[in-house]
Amino acid sequence: MRTLSPTRSVKDVRLAAERVSFRVEPRTLVVCLILILVTAGLVLVSLSVGDYPVPFPEVIESLRGEGSRLADLFVVQRRLPRALVAVVAGIAFGISGAIFQRLTHNPLGSPDVIGFGYGASVGAILVILFYGGGTLETATGAFVGGLIAAIAVYLLAYRSGVNGLRLVLVGIGVSAILIAIINYLVSRADLRDARAATVWIVGSLFERRWGDVQLVGYGLLLLVPITMILSRYLPMLELGDDAAAALGVPLERARLGLVVVAVGLTAIATASTGPIGFVALAAPQLARRLTRSPGAGLTAAGLMGALLLVASDLIARRAVAPSELPVGVVTAGVGGIYLGWLLLAHSRRTR
Amino acid sequence: MTNTLPRRIAGLLLCLALLALAVLLSLAVGARAIPFTEVVDALWHSDGSPEAVIVTTQRVPRTVLGLLIGMALGLAGTVMQALTRNPLADPGLLGVNSGAAAAVVSAISFFGITTAAGYVWFAFAGAAAATVVVYLLGGGGKGPGGPVRLALAGTSIGAVLVAYTYGVQMLDAKALDQFRFWIVGGLSGRDQSVLMDVLPFLIVGIVVALLLSRPLNALSLGEDTGRALGVNLAGTRLASAATVTLLCGAATAAAGPFAFIGLAVPHAARALIGADLRWVLPYAMLLAPVLLLGADVVGRVVITPSELEAGIVTALLGAPVLIALVRRRQVVPL
Predict the structure, then answer these.
(1) Looking at beta carbons, which residues of chain A come within 8 Å of B151?
(2) By Cβ atoms counted within 10 A, which residue in A189, A202, B77, B306 is the most buried?
(3) A13 has which bridge partners?
(4) Cα A113 to Cα A171: distance, rounded to the nearest angstrom
């Protein structure tokens, strides 16, 4: 089992007298580096453009703490936190999407499978309708709503173990109830609240500040190491339950652990941006096709998610300037077109 | 297998009885409850009494609409899941619902159309156009990775259309105000002429879907086995996709999107009867309208004098049933 297929180049890296060893796929490494560079470039661009354009040299000065007060206000106080929230939330969505797709063996799998996004929407809409909805209150409502939905789905699907298909089906059922509640609330609310609720459901990055960055940043720092540890079970779980058990994987604990970190990642991302579901769906698929690896690598998926969200937010801010679109609209548009194009390119190659 | 045949037929008769009950209830229950005897009288010979007028002019069209749409969605969902071999596939997966929604929101925002009768052809055209694009992009679902590609193509086109739909709503508050009522599927206030418009499509779709059970069964055994059994694979896929578009496009045009029925009823039918499509299709065809009409009846009485849309009640009633079925029985894979 040194390499899965002879045509794929995989390097084994061994350090400290073989006490630490891991494998590197050169293509994946290159793709990840390119994703990071492109994302960094897009962040710089998004710091520069806007209703008050700041030229690149001044952006750099501001970042080093030497800019004018006006440039500081726009670059450091307004645009940087917004871009960082996009990066961090994108990473979180991408990783959690990859985990769910591999756990459920289904390319349509996403955190929404377990009803999280819809639960979060119901929570947020209730807060918007009955408490007027500040950013923090809405985020809290979303967090609580999503968590309740996810726990309910997991418990309802649990029957001496969780079967992937049963989890999916129970998730469909619970999601349907939640969607019905969302549609009901939006159709009965007055138009102003309906609009606020719709903006939240679509997902937006309006008015994100440093407090929001801290919230998602700490969450990610906490969850990513745990994800890294648990992710080694994923390839074995993909072989099927029997084979995985034979290889010594603690099935239920591994699966529960992975679901918990994936839901946690979705939770912090959703609380800060709204349920931008399509990132979690598209990022792993895009990353998988770029790296040409058999399963969606978590790192590449996370970086792809960040790129997708930063690029989308840039377009959302500028496409209909001086007005703004919610980023979720653009994410689905951009991601959808890109995924469609990849499918088309793939069909040309195989023909 | 022989001893299961009578049970399966008995089950089918039971479904039929449930459907008859749902139809009767749908004719009798409402803001003005009408006894069953008077309902039957009104159906045979309308005596011009207020009750008879209500039954013949309001409840009968509404019930027929629910009956046909339910059948269409149940069949479309089953065919869709068999075609993509994906339990997450709903009839909207080929882009039918999102295409219809995008066309309707355009009709509202750019052409100022505000009546259900005006939406119908927009919805139908949008549904058909979206399906054609998805089908071509998904490569017709052929080859080993075909079903996955078809599903992904549907998801990506669907996402683009949903994004467009939301974008228009964000920039045009008037469109949001209209659209949020259309998106909640329901049977009330739908025009009778709408039903007549889509009726031919529904009937053709229902017949073709039932005829597809054998080739789809063979297809579910895998490409090679299917071909060895003499099934025309490309033809079956094309016919399935066309049928789903006919059924789901017509249903969505007439009553708005009902996502849940097409998704859940096939799973319920499989939990009851197994994976054989020759049985799953008729079961789904009978059970789906039971769910839809039942939801419509409940929606009429829970918050009288106002009504709760059938699209909402469907999910609230149907989802617990689905969850209970999934928990109690073995999950039947496709």
Answers:
(1) 107-108
(2) B77
(3) A22
(4) 5
- DSSP letter for A111, please: G
The answer on pLDDT for B220 being more than 60 is yes
C-alpha to C-alpha distances, A157 to B6, B328, B331, nearest whole angstrom: 32, 11, 11
DSSP string for residues in B47-71: ---HHHHIIIIIIHHHHHHHHHHHH
Say which of B88, B153, B177 has its CB closest to residue A191: B177
Rounded Cα–Cα distance for residues A92 and A95 (Å): 5
pLDDT > 70 fraction of chain B, expressed in percent and rounded: 91
Which residues in chain A are closer than 8 Å to B180, comparing Cβ atoms? Answer: 183, 186-187, 194, 198
Using a CB cutoff of 8 Å and minimum separation of 24, what contacts does B223-229 make?
B223/B142, B223/B143, B223/B144
H helical segments located in chain A: 26-48, 56-63, 69-72, 80-103, 116-131, 135-157, 164-188, 191-202, 210-230, 234-237, 241-246, 251-273, 277-291, 298-318, 327-350
**B285-308 burial: b if 16+ Cβ within 10 Å, else e:** bbbbbbbbbbbbbbbbeeeeeebb
pLDDT, mean over chain A: 82
pTM equals: 0.74
CB contacts of A317 in chain B (<8 Å) are none
Cβ proximity of A75 and A62 under 8 Å: yes
pLDDT at A5: 44
What is the rounded distance in angstroms from the CA atom of residue B267 to the CA atom of residue B280? 9
- Sign of the torsion angle spanned by Cα atoms B285, B291, B292, B294: positive
> For residue A250, what is the DSSP state?
-
- Provide the β-strand partners of residue A21: A14
Chain A residues in contact with B162 by the CB 8 A cut-off are: 332
Query: Which structure tokens are listed for A134?
Result: 């500040």
Mutation site, B90, B180, B322, interface A, largest A CB count within 10 A:
B180
Q: How many CB atoms lie within 10 A of CB B33?
A: 10
Q: Tell me: pLDDT of A249 over 60.
A: yes
Min Cα–Cα distance to chain A from B61, Å? 25
Among chain A residues, the shortest Cα distance to B310 is held by A180
- Adjacent-strand bridge partners of A22: A13
Q: What is the per-residue pLDDT across B165-194, written as a single tens digit (0 to 9) for each? A: 888 887 887 778 777 777 777 777 666 677
Mutate: best of B93, B135, B164, B166, partner A, most A CBs <10 A: B166
Q: Judge: B323–A156 Cβ closer than 8 Å, yes or no.
A: yes
